[in-house]
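Feature request, filed as a ticket because there's no other form

It would be nice if the structure record came with a short human-readable summary line next to the tokens. Right now we just get the raw output. Example of a typical job, pasted below so the devs can see what we mean:
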Amino acid sequence: MSSQRFAGKVALVTGSTGIGAAAARALAAEGASVFVVSRTADHARELAETIPGARWQAADLAHEEAAESAVRGCVDAFGRLDCLFNVAGISGRRFGDGPVHELAAEGWDTVMAANLRSMFLVTRATVRQMLAQGGGAVLNMSSILADHPSAPLFSTHAYAASKGAINAFSLAVAAHYARDGIRVNVIAPALVATPMSQRTQQDPEILDYVRRRQPLAAGPLTAEDLVGTVLYLLSDDSRMVTGQVLAVDAGWSIGGG
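Raw output as currently delivered:
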């Protein structure tokens, strides 16, 4: 039987596939009331239908009113908001992300909106709610590429910049609101097998590299490989942990294999 670390707590998860889906199910299994937000209504609804009591909302979180509405929707549904897991984001390659000498301005703007602006807007609305409640936990999604780049196989420079900015933003927010009982941490995974990473999963050269760089997994991580860390950082088990960037990378950041 799983623990009930989240009994009586409300969790908002942005993103409804891959890591977001695995985390939402795990949070619910440990007692949380789960509110799922995704830009794609079908994905959000389909995930929520697999989780007893879950609610959902479709929203493009890069838009200010949509982000505010999503947080309001969660609070209206469940009365409060205790945990936020900011997962939603994109890789940006199809929008023109790449090495800086080839990087389209549109690609930069699109990635920053989807990965950084959306996370800022949801965090801002959530922190306002948590200030009124007297505390809570926020977990933001970064990437190992923010601090450990790997050229030329992973050369999306806007993506890396967005994740580095998430790290800096999260630490600043954690420092400011610690006195208010609001904890803010970051999870930074290496390559995870999700719908977003389909291109890399189909590239033999990249897969060979990842098998060597992520020796603990001998290949890509699974979404479930991150769940234990997500639950720890959102639960009271980590009540004295804030302002930390925790890499879940199967060995990538220490040189891999």
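Something like this underneath would help us a lot:
The first strand starts at residue 10 and ends at 14.
The chain has a mean pLDDT of 95.
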